[in-house]
Amino acid sequence: MFYANSNIDTETEFEKRRAAAETLAKAEGVEMAAAPYDHEEWMRDVACGYEDEPEKGARCARCFRYNLAKTAAYAREHGFDAFTTSLTVSPHKVSEMVFAASDDPMFLKENFKKREGFKRSLARTAELGLYRQSYCGCEFSRHA
Q: 95: closest CA among 113, 83, 107?
């Protein structure tokens, strides 16, 4: 499992979410790695000039592209055959928009909302006592 979320607005929130991902990885018996937190880079490379975009707009598409590119690079560097994202489990994310954010041939375009994926994620979250966030992560999504 790879955790890349420099889009998250504070390091405290980043760490809460990272800890939840580590708990899940441990429960699933998989190793987890995390990209360093660099919100300044994310603001510069993704959000700058897109601050007023609505949720599900161009800023979000850029953010998906940014994080999926980091994930793809990690996957290649560590010899993975494929990678995917958990973003599509959320009913707040448009799976087609997430899929369009990467044309990497290693990217598995799985819509995890299917087959009651969101409902199953809620049950697993409760079972493991995982932190559930109330917003996407960036400061712009807090006001959406």
A: 113
